[in-house]
Amino acid sequence: MRKFILAGLVLGSVFASGNLFAARKFALIVGTNYKGSEISPLGLCEKDAEVMKKSIAQTGNFEQQNIRVLLANQVTRENLRSAIVDWLGKQVKDGDQVFFFFAGHGQFMRDPAAKNGMRNFIIMFQRPHVSDDELSEWFGKLKTKKAVIILDCCFSGGIAKKGAATRGAGNVPIPDGQDYAVLQDLEGVHFQNKVVISSSDDNETAIELGKPIEHGIFTYYFSKAILDADLNGDKSITAYEAFFKARNETTKMAQKANHKQVPQISGDASGFFFVAAAVAPPPPAPVLPPVPVVVPEPEVAPPITPEEPQNPTNKKTGTLVIKTTYTKAQLAGGIQVFIDNEEYDFNLQYVDYGAWGKTAQITVSKVPSGVHNVTIKAGGYSDQVVKTGIEPNQTTTETITCGLAGKGAIAGKVYLETFDQGAEGFIVFIKPLPNFKQPTSTSRKDGSFAFTEVKPGKYTVFLRGSARAVIKQYDQEITVEADKITNLDIVLKRLVAKK
């Protein structure tokens, strides 16, 4: 994933050679509430582990002896290492499928050797905890590339909310002697060549809720989606279908709890089925009597194919809304929208989009339900491609952020200690000046800021205090690339009130 994941699902390469239906499936399910530990307790992680175990067993045809569960005080570094390296490492063969689930706390910890000076950890019941590097190394020892890893936790501090608990432990660590840290393009765990689905964005916290859900909200909706997210009506459920349905439900429920949590996906998960329609067997080869003809049973195991399936008989549709960073002043021509290579008509509005100002919002009606590739061609901007999942009779919203063709852009937020609280009124400077139109950007109510039309190159970023507080300046070098957004998270350690 392009950023630090807070919680994620990883799908290994699904295009292995060999018999697609002979692969064995293994599951390792891990969850702890930290009751009786020095770690701040959570209430529903062990329950999450149980519901995910139940759902994956229903869809994946896992044999009982190939499922292991670690709960409560069993969740230690050595038990986890042994389960992955010793048990899975010895049992799993090339082409087998591995499913791993962890529900618990995640946290940033200071590490001068890591990018941005911080590393992310999943928190065990007791010390020592497990870093992203270690987890990646352990899974790298398995003989199969087909691994599904779900981490329902977050890697930042959380704040208490009524009826909700955040799955983070502690504030974002700031180096000694600094009042803030500038974090560029937070990275995910280092599972190379994998698909990552995270339960929240890199600067968000994952939450769990009491009634009526009584689960971590992403786990709750994802565990349901892998059983019922047949968006295009073909009686199959793919990883993309499950993700998009769970993402939409998670986002809506988080908003009801006055929280922002938007699951993310990166990489190509096409062709992975959680549930598959029965495949008609080929006709038997002709034989001479009296040899009886044996008709094989229909194959119902989840197949693996290189493409996301389409259903040409599907008549159900939904609406697609695309928020962009295209401004009327910068557009050098018209806009075209293609869905699976077919051009669609759309409605265009210019609406307020945070620190970007008034930008183009595209609405496409009567889009067939299912998973699609959407291409946006806009004059003056490089072509943008986004994958989306349309639910029948529902509205799906996607976001495209990009700078002008040949130039870059900077987008970010200023926070107070954790990723849950934006800081308004702080002035962000970059030098040398990226252009003469915008030498500074002031953080808005939600902490957001943006710079557009930035020439590719290296810059220095620093922050100055708001009208109510003063901070010590700290310079941080960043890199801006052409046709890309440089994402910055500026986290304040403390504020000193002005007299």
Automatic annotation (TrEMBL):
The record's Gene3D superfamilies line, in alphabetical order, gives: 3.40.50.1460, Carboxypeptidase-like, regulatory domain (2.60.40.1120)
Q: Provide the GO MF annotations for this entry.
A: carbohydrate binding; cysteine-type endopeptidase activity
Q: Which residues form the Peptidase C14 caspase domain?
A: 24-267
Which positions fall inside the NOMO second beta-sandwich domain?
Answer: 409-484
- Alphabetical keyword list: Signal
Q: Which residues form the signal peptide?
A: 1-22
Q: What's one Pfam family here?
A: Peptidase_C14
Q: Which GO terms describe its cellular component?
A: cytoplasm
Return the protein name: Peptidase C14 caspase catalytic subunit p20
What processes does the entry annotate via GO biological process terms? proteolysis
Is Signal included in the keywords of this UniProt record?
yes
